[in-house]
Amino acid sequence: MNHLIPEIDEIPLRATDFLRSAPDYKLPLGVPYLGMGSSYFAPLAFRYMGINIIPEIASEYFELRKHSPKSSRGVILSQSGESSESLWCSDLFNSFVCITNSTDSSLGRHTGAEKTILIHGGEEKYSSSKTYINTLLALFRGFGINPEVAVDLLHKKAEKYREKGKQMAEEVYRLRSTGKIHGMYILGSGPNIATAYEASLILSETTKLCYTGLPMAQYDHGPKETAADSIVIQIMSKGSSYDRTKKLSEKISSAGAHVLTVEEEDLPEELTILNNIVPFNYMAAYLAEKLNIGKTFAIGGKVTTVPSGK
Description:
Layout: H1 5-9, H2 11-21, E1 32-35, H3 38-47, E2 54-57, H4 58-65, E3 71-78, H5 84-89, E4 93-100, E5 113-118, H6 130-142, H7 148-156, H8 158-177, E6 183-188, H9 192-207, E7 212-215, H10 216-220, E8 230-236, H11 242-254, E9 258-263, H12 278-290
Parallel strand pairs: 1-2, 1-3, 3-4, 4-5, 6-7, 6-8, 8-9
């Protein structure tokens, strides 16, 4: 059995665990939300919903602020609680809210952590799947948005999401076998820009192929000229950019792009971020299997640790 699949299969269960276990709380507005990789993409989704937060890449925020006086408050997200760049930023604030999967982590135990929110993602050895979903849930709860209908769909449509991911893996494998594919893009709009970034991350690290995640409109401003013999996966959601996305798909298809789509039609746009990412998790697992990729983290570990930037 594909060794990645059991973790992905746990997504609905772990999401329900969070909804049942997490207390009620409010997250601060108007402050930086810092993270790396998936922990940066999650708050970015909420910024594009119109939530008044300031998502920042932790490493770059640290370089910007390391010689400045401490800020009063922020939010630091790290699924492991051990990512170096997030830990560097913990000393930039008088106090901060920590969102992590481990209260016993270095970040969770930091003296500046005024509150630690546990995401209840459980153990995760491979690419962020359960922990990304549960980080989104932690943010939904903190901003007072009820995501229960989306979590219910994670259970009800689990097999559908798996099959969609498997189909996309088979199609991408088939197309790449022709030897003509020169680029692979994943595009999203609104809050699903974060989904596109997350999908490109997990697919790249799992399959060892290069995927580019982009806002749909940014792709439309130039990269669409690479359409011929490329693969473009459009994340569809019924927001203000829906019609533009459909028209772009038609345009680049006629120019020679192979266009695939992912869409959760049964949810409002803001909630689709919980569900649209799941087929990509399965796609990564099945495509890695077809490519005989045996190890997800071959060059580095799941947790990125680097020499101190202080």
